[in-house]
Amino acid sequence: MSVRNSAIVKAPQDLSEPPYNQGILKLKGLSVIESCTHTQSTKGTMFLEDHLLLFVLEGMYTVRFGNQEYTVHKNEMILLQKSIVVEYEKSGDPDSTYLLDYMMFFLKEDVLGEFIKLVEFKSSYPALLVPVCVHSVNDRLVSYLESLKPYFKESDKINDGLVKLKLLELLFDVVDADNRFMFQFLQLKHKTRKGIAEVIEENFMNPVSISDLAFLSGRSLSSFKREFQAMYNTSPLQWLRNRRLDKAEELLTHSNLSVTDICFTIGFENVAHFSKVFKKRFGYPPSALKRG
């Protein structure tokens, strides 16, 4: 059986809420999601609010973003940058009653910065971009992930300091397993400064906040808003809403997608709100163009 969620899930924010209800450990700068279930195939779409380290212990997890596709198999891992939308398909191992077991570590900027300082990495920043790729998980990492599982059963009783120590242990083990991860961590901390126009055109259909767009452009929130206003003579929030609504009208007219599908596709998270602002902009509801 295959399951697909029409809405874009914000990760990790939405993953501990219904209908997902996945195990979660939280600390300032870190969220850890654990999922162990039996499923043949589940599909969906996520917006990554933080950088993601994904480990698969059983089954298979495929992520797609842009023109890239990566499949993470048993005892493999991958690191993905924040503020991207990924389509995913995950499935259990047919030889183990479709068991699917994985962990997701969502890392914020300050956590990575603290780890990089702690390591005292001597090498200079890499001249060439280290590409995203799937890496093997060694026995030490497998043992580490297994040792973390009991924490999810009593997550409300675990001291934040202990969670932080376990996280630092993980990052050291990851770098020891493959030192290319250190360069990837550095790249996440030294993102190339992009033009505002490029950033907003690439991301306006994603469920991004203005803070996310500022991060992607390599600017502070105040600098982003100031430069945006000077370029477009409007606020980022107003521009973003109008750009999404223009795209919605285009899709309603020229695609077979329903009103509900279009709402989520263009970055809105509530159909009623989408219909209200659409009518305010164009003078008629989306259902006037298409029934959804």
UniProtKB/TrEMBL annotation:
Keywords carried by this UniProt record: DNA-binding, Transcription, Transcription regulation
GO MF term list: DNA-binding transcription factor activity; sequence-specific DNA binding
Domain HTH araC/xylS-type intervals: 194-292
Xref: SMART domains: HTH_ARAC (SM00342)
Coiled coil (residue ranges): none
Top-level lineage group: Bacteria
InterPro entries in the record: ExsA-like_N, Homeodomain-like_sf, HTH-like, HTH_AraC, HTH_AraC-typ_CS, Tscrpt_reg_AraC-type_HTH
Protein name per Swiss-Prot or TrEMBL: Helix-turn-helix transcriptional regulator
